[in-house]
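Sample intake — Putative LRR containing protein
Collected from: Trachipleistophora hominis
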Amino acid sequence: MTLFPSSGTFELLRSGDIIEKVTLINVRFYDSMITVPNNIQEITLKNIVLGRIGFWVFPEDIKKITLEKFSDHVQLNGFTQDEPLVGHFNDGTFCSYKSNENEQIELVFSNVYLAHGLYFHSNISRIVMSCVSIDPEFSLKFNEYITEVSLDDCTCNLCFKNLS
């Protein structure tokens, strides 16, 4: 079930089989597992809440993901090795941007609890985290491809092993 209040917004820009952009603002979902399709190029979700039990799954082929004032569980594919990035946002933000030229990805997180360790793929070039917690049993691992890291008010174990 979805609650779409009068202040809610839904926008869709489509070109053939490709969905170029989807925007949802001020929407509440109830007891839903939402799997975002592979044919979406850009998705923006603002002030989204999944009531009670819910989960969003994002595929790895999306060029841009923007979550603002987002409260929900997520699985973000294509950013980390071994396992998808899984976490819970509490009125948080996430932004990923994949540049077309060299496929390098920038990631920005805030107000999120990440459920396992993170070892980022080599196409991740920049990471900015604010108010992020990672399960203490795991580590945030950096590799030689990351050119910029900013951590502010984060709780996590860090691993700088194998940096060249």
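Post-analysis note: DSSP finds no helices and twelve strands in the chain.
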